[in-house]
Amino acid sequence: MTSIFQTAMGPDFHRLHPALRRRFSVGLDSGEACTGRGVMDRIWHGPAFVKPFLALGATRNILVPRTGRDIPFVIENVPYADTFGRETVSFVRTFDLPGRARRFDAQMVLGPRGDRILDYLGTHQHLASDLHLRAQPDGSLLIRSGTHRFREGPVDVRVPELVGATAEVREAYDERAGRFRVRVRVVNRYVGPLFGYEGSFTVSYTDARARGVRPGLRPVREEARA
Fold first, then answer.
1. CA angle 47, 56, 37 (to 5 degrees)
2. Cβ distance 73 to 42 under 8 Å?
3. Containing H/E element for 210?
C-alpha cells in the first residue's frame, strides 16, 4: 500500500518516525482517515498591512486573519477520489477562535511527475502550490512550498515573488508527550514573515471507506489543472 506522500518522497519516506509514517500513509490504499485534535500554542501574523490580505483569503478558507494563544483546533485528513478521478487527501484545519471558528482548507494530490505534492488551497482551489517533502535526521518531516499559481476561469498565472510567499511546515512526533508537534511559517521574500502557527495534537484513525467524506469537507469547486 502506497500513499501519495510515500510516492512523492520515495525511499526518504522510510526515514520518518513510525508515527509520521502512519499519519502520512493515509490514502485510498490504506483506507484510513486521520483526525488530529489539539491546541495551537500561538497563531500569529506579520505587520498590520498584511491583515487585509489575510482577511481576503479567509473568505475562501485560505489562511487565518486572527491571532491568538492556546486555541483548540482540529485537522481532518480524509482520502477520496476527486471529480477528475485523482486520489486526494484533505488537510482541513479548523481553529476554534473566540467568537468565530476559522478554517484553513487544502486538498492534496500527487503531482503529474510523481515527485511532489500539488496543494490546492481554499474552497474554490484558486491557488495551487508545489510541495516538496523531506525527512529530517531526527525523523521529523519538513515541507516547503515551491511554485504558486493562481487560476480562475481562463486565467492561469504564476504568482510573482513580490506578492507571493513561501510556506514551511515542520511536523514531528514527541514520544515523551505522545503528541505530534507542528510549526508553520509563511514568509514573503521582501516583506518577511506573514503568518504562522505552532502547536501540538493527538490523532485518531477511522475507516475512510465506511465513513466516507463528511458534507462540507470537499471544496466547492475543483481545479483540473496541475
1. 85
2. no
3. helix 208-211
Q: Which residues pair with 39 in a beta bridge?
A: 72, 200
Q: CB–CB of 159/148 below 8 Å?
A: yes
> How far, CA to CA in Å, does 29 sit from each of 2, 25, 26, 32?
6, 9, 8, 8
Cβ-based neighbours of 37, under 8 Å, separated by 6 or more: 72, 73, 74, 201, 202, 203, 204
119-176: pLDDT as tens digits: 999 999 999 999 999 999 999 999 999 989 998 888 889 887 766 789 999 999 999 9
212-221: pLDDT as tens digits: 999 999 999 9
Cα separation, 33 vs 22, whole angstroms:
11
Q: What is the pTM of this model?
A: 0.94
Q: Beta partners for 94?
A: 74, 103
Closest CA to 22 of 167, 141, 184, 198: 141
